[in-house]
Specification:
With 403 residues, this protein is α+β, with helices and mostly antiparallel strands. The protein is built from five helices and 28 strands.
Length: 403
């Protein structure tokens, strides 16, 4: 290797080593399995005070978990086996709606741990209901179907449900609905029509984002007037919520580059932060207020095959940087911040290696641009045998010319 090549190689190695040491923002701690069988779970819903989680999936499976200690569980039984696709807690946190195939809408109540039908399946045309969300005030719930219909519903005096179809519904599957905590607006995603907005008076408008395979929508728990939607081909859309101007809600769409990941869903983490679930299995943090995305739990850092080979169907937070992951087969994994020792090592590396690499860059540039005498001096001290022989021949030739 030449002296010039040595400088360049050392510089590249030093700069590349920082990336090699980069780790996930969180690590895995406790794990547990809800069953010895593959449950085929589809998701999880968490109440407003983050104390109760509901998981749901194939064959009508519903289980209630203590959000802080998921080992505390109650399996719910009802008289049906329809697959359940989505769930959402009422803003008051005491009840949740769970929806699924054949027009099924179930109501779970915390007070007596009951699970019963909230609407007759015939009134919902036996449709496959794929999404549900309560509006900001908790006065109505919106449900969306595989065929693109959207209804608003609430309990009726006769114990059934009052239902009204929203105009301008689409023809493709409604993949997600979420409503902002403080702004009386909701965001809808569909596989063909794109992104839609439900306003306070239940007016529904498609606002853009057609042509993207949207897989999830999340509105923050803070005051930020934005919601975010994700599509499986690394697409993220920010949707501004302005009750005075629906045109402001046209999605601002961007794509994360250089990622060999597909986005399959998004869940709230804390404040304006959300977690994007991907396949291959990993989590990406997205800060809605900063419009920035960052690695959270990288696939290469997942050593447990029960997680790395499974599909994440949901997450919930128990702290700023902690919470639980739920997988399709029924595994739960706790994630926690990485240890202070690891963080300290990484910080130390940054303190030492980056200045060192910078110094090497400067030294390399000085060497390449330096006068001949400086280069010859460098070869004398750290050059290889061939470079030194070449230097000796050049000096002998220069001496003959002087004579």
């Amino acid at each position: 290797m030449t002296t010039r090549g040595l400088f360049v190689s050392i510089m590249v190695i030093m700069l590349a080593s920082h990336n090699a040491l980069a780790t996930s923002a969180v690590g895995l701690a406790e794990s547990l399995s809800l069953s010895e069988e593959d449950l085929g779970l589809n998701g999880v819903a968490i109440d407003s005070d983050a104390t109760t989680a509901v998981v749901y999936g194939q064959e009508g499976y519903v289980r209630i978990l203590d959000a802080n200690d998921p080992n505390q569980q109650v399996e719910m039984v009802w008289n049906g086996v329809s697959e359940l696709h989505d769930a959402d807690f009422h803003p008051g946190g005491q009840t949740a709606l769970i929806v699924g195939d054949h027009g099924v809408v179930l109501r779970y109540a915390k007070q007596d741990q009951s699970l019963e039908r909230a609407a007759s399946d015939v009134s919902l045309d036996y449709a496959m209901i794929t999404a549900v969300a309560w509006n900001t005030a908790g006065s109505w719930a919106y449900v969306g179907t595989e065929e693109g219909q959207i209804w608003r519903m609430r309990a009726a005096e006769d114990g059934g449900a009052e239902l009204h179809a929203l105009s301008a519904s689409g023809t493709s599957e409604i993949t997600a609905i979420d409503c902002h905590d403080t702004i009386m607006m909701c965001v809808v995603s569909a596989t063909a029509e794109g992104i839609g907005i439900i306003e306070r008076d239940h007016t529904f408008t498609w606002v853009g984002g057609t042509g993207y395979p949207w897989t999830g929508v999340e509105c923050p728990s803070g005051e930020t007037p934005y919601c975010v939607a994700v599509a499986d081909n690394q697409i993220i859309a920010h949707i501004e919520l302005n009750p005075e101007d629906i045109s402001a809600s046209i999605p601002s769409i961007s794509r994360l580059q250089n990622l060999e990941l597909y986005f399959i869903g998004i869940e709230a983490q804390e404040g304006d932060r959300a977690l994007i679930a991907t396949t291959p299995t990993s989590l990406v943090e997205h800060d809605i207020s900063l419009n920035g995305s960052y690695p959270w739990l990288e696939h290469s850092d997942i050593e447990n095959l029960n997680l790395s080979s499974d599909r994440i169907v949901g997450t919930w937070a128990t702290g700023t940087d902690s919470g639980w992951i739920v997988t399709s087969r029924g595994y739960l994994f706790e994630y926690v911040p990485t240890s202070s020792e690891s963080s300290g090592l990484l910080s130390l590396w940054i303190v030492i290696a980056i200045p060192a690499a910078t110094g090497l860059v400067v030294l390399c540039l000085v060497y390449l641009a330096s006068p001949k005498k400086m280069q010859d001096w460098t070869i004398e001290r750290i050059g290889n045998e061939d470079e030194r022989k070449d230097l000796a021949r050049r000096r002998a030739k220069q001496q003959r010319k002087r004579r």
